[in-house]
Amino acid sequence: MRVLGIDPGLTRCGVGVVDVRPDRSATLVHLGVVRSPVDAPVAERLVVIARGIRAVLAEHAPDVVAVERVFAQQNRSTVMGTAQAAGIALLVAAEAGLPTATHTPSEVKAAITGYGSAEKLQVQTMVARVLRLDELPKPADAADALALALCHAWRGAPSVPARGEALTPAQRAWAEAEKRAGSRGAVAR
């Protein structure tokens, strides 16, 4: 399954595409950010975001689109811009005839790290491990988009764990990394 994850934002809209196999292993396909000029009118900025998402859809042909669900923040202008960008992402996906899903940040963190209040660095570290990347995915908006895509694939894919296997793919990757670290010390958390 190919999943496009979108971390909506009016200034920086993270996009990440992953291929996830039935065994839930994943491969990075695309990582990027759609940027809109901060001094442009909101309507023009939304057009830029829509154009960028359409380009990713056309180039990478995902099967499904996962968007971060907007939740209340203290800064009203930030939440408004995020909500507007999320709406554009959902609209563009629907126009392309793609199924969509939304996930909260805590759902994504729990799926990726096993802990719903994980720090951004923990999420980036796990995304890098799961995708077997040599370095942390950057910028953070794009890393969050990859985490969204992985979360959706893992939550949406049928799960029949082997006997005694109750860990998520991210938790298994973390445990394997800790084993490899062995005498070198524990994995930084």
UniProtKB/TrEMBL annotation:
GO terms for cellular component: cytoplasm; Holliday junction resolvase complex. Mg(2+) 2 binds at E68. InterPro entries: RNaseH-like_sf, RNaseH_sf, X-over_junc_endoDNase_Mg_BS, X-over_junc_endoDNase_RuvC. The active site is at D7, E68, D141. Belongs to the RuvC family. The RuvA-RuvB-RuvC complex processes Holliday junction (HJ) DNA during genetic recombination and DNA repair. Endonuclease that resolves HJ intermediates. Cleaves cruciform DNA by making single-stranded nicks across the HJ at symmetrical positions within the homologous arms, yielding a 5'-phosphate and a 3'-hydroxyl group; requires a central core of homology in the junction. The consensus cleavage sequence is 5'-(A/T)TT(C/G)-3'. Cleavage occurs on the 3'-side of the TT dinucleotide at the point of strand exchange. PANTHER family: CROSSOVER JUNCTION ENDODEOXYRIBONUCLEASE RUVC (PTHR30194:SF3). This is Crossover junction endodeoxyribonuclease RuvC.
